[in-house]
Design a protein that fits this description.
With 91 residues, the chain is α+β, with helices and mostly antiparallel strands. Helices cover 37% and strands 25% of the residues. The chain is built from four helices and three strands, in the order E-E-H-H-E-H-H. It is globular and about 30 Å long.
């Protein structure tokens, strides 16, 4: 089953990194305020995602991004170079 790592940019400029099996549903949950960490920072927009084969792989990647092993500049580069047309189905 496919799994996704995703990064949202919230209205306050902060970023939220998460994982999901169903990215469209998870984004809908965020926009509806059903995800506590982003509920008060809406709207949030998708700026980056990766598809993985399994949830544990997406979780491992999430931990590497949140755990400080990946520098902020690297995350900024990932977002800046991510093809915008890939985000269109999730808008």
């Amino acid at each position: 089953m496919a799994a996704y790592l995703y990064i949202l940019e919230c209205a306050d400029g902060q970023r939220y990194t998460g994982i999901a099996n169903d990215l469209k549903q998870r984004l809908a949950d965020h926009q509806a305020g059903r995800v506590l960490p982003t509920a008060w920072r809406l709207p949030a927009r998708l700026v980056y995602f990766e598809q993985h084969e399994a949830l544990h792989q997406a979780r491992q990647r999430e931990r590497s991004l949140k755990g400080g092993r990946t520098r902020r500049a690297s995350i900024e580069y990932m977002i800046a170079t991510f093809p915008r047309e890939k985000l269109a189905p999730f808008a």
